Structure of Zn-dependent protease:
Amino acid sequence: MGFLVYFLIIILVPIWAQFKVKSAYKKYSKVSSSSGMTGAEVARRILDENGLYNVQVEPVRGVLSDHYDPRSKVVRLSEDNYFGTSVAGAAVAAHEVGHAIQDDENYSFLRMRHALVPVANIGSNFSWILIMIGIFAQMSGLLLLGIVFMAAAVLFQVVTLPVEFNASNRAMNLLVSSGVIRNDEERETRKVLNAAALTYVAAAAVAVLELVRLILIYTGMNNED
C-alpha cells in the first residue's frame, strides 16, 4: 500500500504542477497588459535598459517553448508571447530576460547549472539502466553506481530552483521599474511566475524522493548481505 501511495505521489505531483502552470498561463494570456506592449517589445526594452544590446529576441514555434539560449545570446519567445500583448506574455518575456541578465552577471547558480549539464545528461540517460540491472541482478555495486549518476541529475534539478526563482524575482522588479505593468497588475503577473516555478519545485521534489528511495533499497540490499 505504501508503494502505491508513493508512486501516485510521484506521478500526480508533476501532473498537478503542469496543470497549474497551463491554467494560469491560459487565463492570463487572455488578459491584455495596460502597456499594450508585445512580449518582444517587453524583452527588448528590458534588455536595452540593462545594456544587453547584443542579446537578440526571436520568435519560436510551440506553446510555452520560451527560453534563453546562452550560447547564441538569444531570448526566444513562443509566437503567442512574442506577438501578443498579454500579462502572461509580458511575465514570460521578463523571466527569460532575467536569465539573460544572470548570464551577463555570471550568476553563480546559473554557472553551476551550466557546468552540471554534461554530467546531468549522462546521469539521466544511463542511471536507470544501471539501477534496474543492479536491483534485478542483486548487484549492489552496480546499483550504487546508478545512484551516483542519478544524484548528479538530481543535483542539476535542485540547482535549477534558485536559478528560476531568481529569474522570476528579477522579472517582477524589471516589469515594475520599466513601467510595463501597473501596481494592480502585479498580482496577476506573480501568479503566472509562481505557477511556472511550481513545475521546477515538483520536478526537484519527485527527483529527491526517488533518490532517497533508491538509497534505502541499496542500504537494505547491503544489510541482507
